[in-house]
Structure formats: C-alpha cells, structure tokens
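Fold it.
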Amino acid sequence: MTTADMVISEVDALLRSSEFLKAYDSARRALEQFPGFRRLQHRAVLSLARAGALERAQAAFKGFGLDTVDDDEDILGLWARLLKDAAFALPHEKRGDALREASGAYERAHAAGDGGYYSAINVASLLLLAGEHERAADWARSSETLAADDQSYYGLATRAEAALVLQDPARAKTLIGEAVELGRGDFAALRSTRRQLQRLCRYLEIDEALLGPFAPPRVIHFCGHMPATEDEDGRFPKSEIPRVRSEISETLRREDIRFGVGSLAAGSDILIAEALIASGGSFEAVLPFDRDEFIEVSVAPFGGEWVARFQTCLAAANTVHYVTEDAWLGDDELFNYASHLGLGLARLWSDRLGAELAQLAVWDGAPPRTDAGAGTVFDLARGRGMGVRQFVIPSRSATPVSLDALPEFEPHETGSRRRRTMVFGDFKGFSRLSDALLPIYVENVLGTAAEVLSRYRANLAFRNTWGDGLFLVFDDVTVAASAALDLCRSLRELDLEALGLPDTLGLRLGMHYGPVYERRDPVLEQSNFFGFHVSRAARIEPITPEGEIYVTDAAAAALAVEASDRFRCDYVGQVPLAKGYGAFPMYALTQLDSA
C-alpha cells in the first residue's frame, strides 16, 4: 500500500536528480489520493519553482491555500523563496524593494519555526544584495552559529554562504569543497547553492572560480553511424566497435557527461546509451516512428544482438518520445525531425540543470550522401548552428575527422511530410452571444485577429475559422510563437465592454510542432494540412485556460533550439488531452522580456 510518506520520498529523490517535471507530476497524482496533504502540496510547488515556472508555482501555492498558513517554517520559507525568485527576475535597478520583501518573508519563516539556519542565511544574503550590509553580517553570523554542528551538505553550504556574506572567500572555498563532496548526486541542491553564491560573488566582486566544484555534469544530444552489415567498407566497420565503445566511455568520464537524449538505432546510439547506463547516468530516447517498425528498419538488420540491446536500453530510458506512433512510410523526414526534437529536449534538460549542452557523435568525417535527407552530418551541422560544444569519435580509426568539414546547416526537408507548427484557437463565450452581438464580434474580435495575422502572412501557410475557432499553420515555429502571443495580447487589449460584448469573452490557444502532410483540400479548393500531428494539435486548445497558450514538448523543444533567448516554456504538467487522447507533457508559452 502506497502511503503519503512513500510518495514524499519518491518526489524528493526526483528533485535531487533534477527531474523536476516528473516530481511535479508525481506530487500532483498523489494529491488526488491524499488531498490537502501539506507536505505534498509543498513539494508540488517546489517542483514548479525549481523548474523555473515561477508564476505557476505562485498560483499553485495560493491554489492549495498555503498562503493562509502562518505557523509552518517550511511553507513560509517556500513563499519567501518564490518572492526571492520574483525579485531576481526584475531588472537589477528595480530589485531593492523586492529583495527586502523576500528577506522579510524569510524572517517571518524563521520566527515561525525553530529558528532554522536555512531561513537565517537567506535573510543575510538578501539583505546584503539590498545594500544593508550591517544587518546582513548579523544574520550571517547567526546562521553560522545555528549551522555550526551540522556536518550535512546544507549545514556546510550555509556556512560557506555566510563566509561570503562576511567577505571571507578563503574560508568559503574550503567549506564549498567539503559541501560538494557530500552533495554529489543532488544536482538540484548544487545548482541552487551555486546560483545563490554566484550572486554574492558578483555583488562583492569575488572571483567566481571558487564556485568551480558546483559545476553540474554536461547534458548531451547523441548521434552517429549505424554499423556495417556484411563487410568492412561501411561508415562504421564492425571491427571498430570495441575501440569506439571504449572511447565513448572515456569521453563520458573525462567530460563529466551524465545525461543524454538521442535515438536508439543499432551502433552508435545504442553504444552511447549503454555507456550512460553503465556510468550511472540517465537518458531520454527519441524514436521517429512506431517502435516495432523502428526495430525492423534501424536495429534488426544488424543482428539479433542489437535488438536485445535496444530492448534493454529502451526499458532503461527515463522517457521515450515518439515523433509519430504511426508508420514510417519511407519518409526520412521523420529521422530529421527526431534529431531536431532530441536536440531541443536536451536543451530543455540542460536549462533545468543549469548545465552545459554538448553533442557527442560517432562520425567518419565524410559528407552526407547526395540523396540523404537525414544523418549524422545533418545532426552535427544543426548542433554547430546552435553553438554547442561537440565531441566527435571517429568511426574509422584510419580516417581523420575534423569538424571544419561540416557543411553550413540548412533546413533540409525530404519525403512527403513537412515540419509545420499548428495553432488551434477557441473564443470562450462565443456560444452565448446573441444574434445581435455577432456582427460586432465578427467585425471587432475576428477583425482584430485578422489584422494580427496579416503581419505574419509571409509565414502563414494556412488559416481557417469557423466563427468561434481558429486553425493556423506556420512554416516557422518562432513566427508561430510570436503570432500566438501577439493574438493573445491584441485581443486582451480590446475594450469588450465598450463594444457591448461580454467581458467573459476570451481566447485560448494550443500549439504543436511536427511533420504533416500538405495536400489540396477538395472541399476548400486550396492547400490544407493533415496527419497525426494535426490531430494532436487539435486536442490541446480545449484543455488550455483562457488567455493562455499551451504548447507540447515538441513545440517547446523546437523553440529551445531555434530561439531560447526569445521565448520561455514553463512546465504545466502531464495534462489529459480532449476526447480521451491521452495525457501529454504540456508547457505554457511566454515571451522573455529581453525579446
């Protein structure tokens, strides 16, 4: 029988390994079984906060009623942490008052509990950054005293932070080394501490090199050639496999690589996945189509041994993503899309960890075949276009490999399916409009939508409306994101009351990215878009709250590859889609202030 304490332990383990999204989903599911359990509510909010979904964390905190709690140091400290995150999200010149507000919240948490050192050291650091140095020093000395006998990671990290507040970097360096030794494996704690100490170093102009021990392991996107089948003339001869396996393991060890995302074709993919498993790391698998057909196409032709190894790796994967759960149909674009998705998912993972994203490939150094639409060269060229560090292991020991030989990456679509971004929209409250209001609605609401979309005409491949709904298809995912945000913003700014329309009228949008068919629609007598991914996109909008834009993990990953500096995708959770379509990870799209 599962108990609440068992779930707490599971969630805490996920948080330590920086599996924030899984931790949130686990806590939310458990709350259905144990409603109102405060510690589970605390973990759900904390998971969102650590994932960077600040507004959602704040909404969840209040939604659970935790804002009414005044006698629990952990709950009050969590709200203080959310205020601290909100303060650091502000421009530097506007942070002062917000930092003092967060500091005051930590003081209240400290007073409500047993006077823990966690709240005390946060008071100290926030006061320092707000310019109140004397009070900061008093609180730092107090936190040192409270943590003096605690030889755990958090006790040592607190004393290291206090040493920095007191401007004693030599002592801080010693304590950091001791803390990190105890905290290895708790990536979330290491990341949180590093970020806090980094702020202090920058404020006090202390060399950040002393924070080196906190550096998290790298995250990689992995790819490479499949092995030769009958002879030694392929791009990856069988005789080279033992050497390549050894070099992969050495690269993971030398470069501190613990996390990866990639496919599981025979050869390089499986070798890298096996090395990650053997080293205690973890990975996510991306399959371009149905598992059984993928085995038939990309694994079984190389021998039964590879099939068994594929099954073992697939079972060990943290998550398995599918480009489509349908058939391949000989369409290499699905492999190309899988690579794009894998890189984006790796970017999202590295961002959650605060880690460097890199790419690991097994490559023979040769250009792609003239008829190829996907492959290792394309994967490496895309990674180079993102500016990620690349580690290449030669698949033929006698052939020198140079990344200088990579061609410039150009979007290259082949086959019958094309990668497009689908946006479905719905105007909530439309069905309650009287006939007298419909002309006003059409002229002003749909008219505003049309005016916005006219600005994106060059990238808008298709548009349709049925009065209360929109279906839009874009050829560029970043343009689609901009258009969706522009639509929501423009319609939100309409003065509905002045127009005589109910103020309950609102737009909600769902966005998805994937390979679809473009065909002439005999009913509309124009091009239209069809396929598995159109159906998936259509199921998102009905579960999206009014005024929001929900995007799938595929769309979030594509934006992470193409424009991580312009858009932010905050995790919402595993959300059941409309019409019993299943539950899928969903993100809320926002635009970064710097865009």
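The CA atoms of residues 245 and 271 lie 6 Å apart.
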